[in-house]
Design goal:
The complex is a heterotrimer of chains A (280), B (313) and C (284). With 280 residues, chain A is α/β, with parallel strands linked by helices. Helices cover 38% and strands 26% of the residues of chain A. Chain A has helices at residues 3-6, 50-58, 84-93, 102-105, 112-121, 128-141, 147-151, 160-171, 190-207, 218-224, 242-247, 252-259; strands at 7-18, 27-35, 39-43, 66-74, 77-78, 95-98, 178-182, 210-215, 227-232, 235-241, 265-267, 272-274, 277-279. In chain A, the strands form 3 sheets. In chain A, strands 6-7-8-3-9-10 form a 6-stranded mixed sheet, sandwiched between helices. In chain A, strands 2-1-4-5 form a 4-stranded antiparallel sheet. Chain A is globular, with a radius of gyration of 19 Å. The two termini of chain A are 27 Å apart. In chain B, 79% of the residues lie in helices and 0% in strands. In chain B, helix 8 crosses helix 10. The termini of chain B are close together. The relative contact order of chain B is 0.14. Chain C is built from 10 helices and no strands. In chain C, helix 2 packs parallel to helix 5 (137-164), helix 2 runs antiparallel to helix 7 (179-216) and helix 5 (137-164) packs antiparallel against helix 7. The chains are: A alpha/beta (280), B mainly alpha (313), C mainly alpha (284). At the B-C interface, helix 1, helix 7, helix 10, helix 11 and helix 12 of B face helix 4, helix 7, helix 8 and helix 9 of C.
Chain lengths: 280, 313, 284
């Protein structure tokens, strides 16, 4: 595996501390590698640092409020060393982000269409008319029914699931190479959750992008990730291919996380079907 | 769309009910105008005739509908005190009060909006501190005290500006302008304190909202985020407050006109209330109520344009 | 929301404003008691005398001692502010909470009525009311009370509405608590703090409104030394004896400033948003 072309993101010894909170590290000497087309799940409870890690990769932390050490290499460039304008250009075009609560992720005063064209037009992107067309296609891509109608509607007129699809569409507007999804399904009903997960899987395939899926729910993560990282108190406790982590966890903490999810298993002749996908 | 129509209809209804309220309130004022006018020479027979002439006979409904009919034809009735048509007297004074208020509002907005923007941009730094300190002070000084202080500083002590009064601008434009400066400042400063505070706070709030972060994740620059999201969202509470302040102004007009000896509708109203001049009181109070209702209506309509969620109701 | 019981638990604004209020109250009381003159006693000295040792605030155009008048005026303002605040709260609380809780026709009717009332600028209403009842200090007091009861009710109703849908109210309902009990034993304590803030606001507004009415000539009748009335009487002498105007003006501002500070301080104490803002970017 050649390091330079296959590797998309490498986080080296990253530590983040919020100023004014004493010595506690939100992210504690984290090392992580993400290859192209790979999906990584980051699992942990609230306060484990997983969201902070996600923000850091996308450059969404307020530099005035944090102290950061270490490096984040994206396409062989250390994101923590470049100027903010450059980082700004990389956001939206190469790194996409999905926030936890879709409902508040959208500006209630602007139409869906008006917001969807923003990432398209930013940083010398498309012109308005072209952007509008592409936006319509994006809505279709995330499988929103009646995209033309939705285009001119306001966020409060859409259901939670639809809003989340819009947010995904916006994040993917420029076909980013890396998508970071922070608890994208937590605020949704269970049935809708499954649909969104499926959508993300399909998009990951068709756009061949890398995915960082952050959640507290190890069950959902294992459905979508190739590898799982378990985080606690800012450190990555365990990391490995999803099957290995699920079936042979090495850490006590991981075992505890796994023990807490309802297990529904039944066996057919050749495969074991579990709630989160089939394994042989 | 329905929202706008409903609001306008509501406004008209409010005006209508206000007129009814005004009419009845005035009739509650004790004292019979006829006897007041006749004084010593009171004669019950003559009083009866006089009351008929003044339109005070007949039932309440009768009087009200007569008044309303005349009103809709532009006839405001005749003053009890001097017999002159109310409409003419009110007109000039009302216009002058409008000049005062509009000038003051403009001045106020010209100060408060930049102040709020600057304070938000330089949050935590000396510019912000100054503006907050200044507004705290302004908020605590009662409006007419502010007026008196302004007169003291600029007219008495420094002698730069006249202490109020009014000059016909057609006759002497520069003197008119100079005599309007202090009243405008008084009105403007008083209302600007709250507005700039709220603008600053709502800009800072909007910057912290989730959708601002989303916009940032899309690669928009801070300037673009301000333009496309922050200002729009911050304008909502600000507009509400501007409407509120203009509302207060209507009440404050009375006092300001007295402080600056400004011949507007305020003093006239006060005098006609004490003088039991029914037609005058009715007309001027109604004018106030109508203007107030119109301002509120406009604020609601503007709000409805910006915030689509309101339209849904 | 715990009511602070220790002095150190209160923030700076609250402390400063309480000190200011206590200060002015004590000074006013002491001055009133010690003053050898009464506020309407005319001709105690040469008219329009400049401030001197015998008359620290000077004398007005009737030869009345200004110190006596202004301090009595301050006490009057305190009185009127306190009375209007208390009565409007005492009446407004039951109306507001019950109406919000009961909902339905009563609540609807009340809000429509309140909306109508709010279609008029309040000073205008005060003016007309005073005209109906007659001018004078006490009638002004009555008129202001009448006007502030709906204002208080509206605010309290709003606060109660945001509480009524909360879980503890539903829990109490399920437990069979009576309306009275829910409203006054549960909802009221939770909105108590914002009511305190409302109280300081009404206090300040009432003082200003009475001063405005007296200033316009429809409030206190001479020789009642309401601060507004003093201002009207002395405004003509602003060029020659400006202290006659400046002193009552500053006294009024001082009172209002203290009350506003108190309200701000209470609101800061109440609003935990300051600490929440610090954790904006942290893990949820």
């Amino acid at each position: 595996m050649s390091k330079n072309t296959q590797q998309l993101l490498e986080i080296l010894d990253l530590s983040i501390r919020f100023t004014g909170t004493g010595k506690a590290l939100a992210v504690d000497h984290v090392n992580l590698k993400i290859l192209r087309g790979q999906a990584i799940g980051i699992v942990g409870e609230s306060g484990s640092g997983k969201s902070t890690l996600g923000f850091a990769i996308a450059g969404l932390l307020n530099r005035n409020e944090v102290e950061i050490e270490g490096s984040i290499f994206f396409e062989n460039e250390d994101l923590l060393q470049i100027e903010s304008e450059k980082f700004q250009r990389i956001r939206g075009s190469k790194i996409g982000y999905i926030f936890q609560d879709a409902a508040s992720s959208l500006n209630p005063l602007l139409t869906i269409g008006n917001q969807l064209i923003q990432p398209l037009m930013a940083n010398n992107g498309e012109k308005k008319d072209a952007a509008r067309k592409i936006a319509q296609e994006l809505l279709a891509m995330v499988e929103i029914p009646e995209p033309k109608k939705r285009f001119n509607q306001y966020p409060h007129e859409l259901s939670g699931g639809m809003k989340q699809r819009v947010v995904i569409a916006a994040a993917l507007a420029r076909s980013p190479m890396l998508l970071i999804a922070d608890e994208p399904t937590t605020a949704l009903d269970v049935t809708v959750q499954a649909q969104i997960i499926d959508l993300l899987l399909r998009l990951k395939q068709s756009l061949s992008m890398s995915l960082v899926f952050i959640s507290h729910d190890i069950g959902i993560v294992s459905r979508i990730a190739d590898c799982i990282a378990v985080m606690r108190n800012g450190k990555i406790l365990e990391y490995g291919p999803v099957r290995q982590v699920l079936q042979e966890p090495s850490e006590e903490y991981t075992k505890m996380l796994l023990a807490n999810i309802p297990k529904l298993k039944y066996t057919t002749k050749s495969t074991t079907h579990s709630f989160w996908g089939d394994h042989d | 769309m329905r929202y706008f129509l409903f609001r306008i209809a509501g406004g008209l209804l409010t005006i209508f009910v206000s007129s009814l309220l005004v009419f009845s309130m005035v009739r509650l004022i004790p004292g019979d105008p006829a006897s007041a006018l006749m004084g010593r020479a009171f004669d019950p027979e003559l009083a009866k005739i006089m009351r008929a002439r003044l339109g005070l006979d007949g039932t309440f409904i009768h009087q009200y509908s007569a008044w309303l009919k005349a009103l809709l034809q532009g006839d405001f009735g005749y003053s009890f005190l001097n017999g002159a048509p109310v409409g003419a007297q009110l007109q000039d004074r009302f216009l002058r009060t409008i000049h005062l208020l509009l000038g003051g509002i403009t001045f106020g907005l010209l100060i408060s909006i930049p102040a709020g923007l600057v304070a938000a941009r330089h949050k935590g730094k000396w510019q912000d501190g100054c503006i907050i300190g200044f507004t705290t002070l302004m908020l605590s000084i009662p409006q007419f005290v502010l007026g008196i202080l302004l007169i003291y500083i600029f007219a008495v002590r420094l002698g730069w500006l006249p202490a109020g009064g009014w000059v016909d601008p057609h006759e002497n434009l520069s003197l008119w302008a100079r005599s309007m400066i202090l009243p405008w400042m008084c009105v403007g400063l008083a209302m600007s304190a709250f507005i700039s505070r709220v603008l600053r706070a709502s800009i800072l709030d909007a910057r912290n909202m989730e959708f601002t972060r989303t916009a940032r994740s899309w690669g928009l620059s801070e300037r673009e985020i301000d333009r496309k999201h922050v200002y729009r969202n911050a304008s909502l509470p600000t507009i509400t407050v501007v409407g509120l302040e203009i509302g207060y102004l209507f009440g404050g007009a009375f006092v300001i006109e007295k402080v600056f000896a400004y011949p507007g509708i305020g003093q006239l109203t006060v005098d006609s209330i004490s003088g039991r001049d029914y037609p005058m009181v009715q007309a001027s109070v109604l004018l106030f109520a109508v203007s107030f209702a119109i301002v509120n209506l406009m604020v609601d309509l503007i709000y409805g344009v910006i915030d689509p969620r309101i339209r849904q109701k | 929301m715990k009511l602070p019981t220790k002095w150190s638990g209160l923030n700076l604004r609250i402390r400063v404003s309480i000190v200011m209020l206590v200060l002015i109250l004590t000074l006013a009381v002491i001055a009133s008691i010690l003053s050898p003159y009464s506020s309407d006693q005319i001709g105690v000295g040469e008219t329009l005398l400049t401030p001197s040792f015998a008359h620290p605030f000077g004398l007005d155009s009737f030869g009345r001692d200004q110190l006596t008048r202004v301090t009595e005026g301050a006490l009057l303002s305190f009185f009127i502010g306190f009375t209007v605040m208390s009565i409007s709260l005492i009446v407004g609380i039951p109306i507001g909470i019950l109406s919000a809780f009961k909902g339905g026709l009563i609540d609807n009717g009340l809000s429509r009525f309140l909306d109508l009332l709010f279609a008029f600028p309040s000073l205008l209403l005060a003016l007309v009311l005073v005209a109906v009842i007659g001018s004078g200090f006490w009638t002004a007091l009555l008129a202001l009370t009448i006007i502030y009861i709906p204002i208080a009710s509206r605010f309290i109703r709003g606060a109660a509405i945001s509480e009524r849908d909360r879980d503890y109210v539903s829990a109490a309902k399920v437990n069979g608590a009576s309306t009275f009990r829910i409203c006054f034993k549960h909802i009221l304590p939770n909105i108590a703090f914002s009511l305190l803030v409302l109280g300081t606001n009404i206090f300040a507004f009432a003082i200003l409104a009475e001063a405005a009415l007296s200033y316009l000539g429809v409030g206190a009748k001479p020789p009642t030394p309401s601060l507004g009335k003093i201002l009207t009487e002395n405004q003509g002498f602003i060029t020659t004896s400006s202290h006659l105007v400046i002193i009552p003006a500053l006294t009024l501002s001082f009172l209002v400033l203290a009350l506003n500070l108190l309200g701000d301080g209470l609101r800061d104490h109440l609003d935990p948003r300051k600490t929440l803002k610090d954790s904006k970017m942290s893990d949820r």
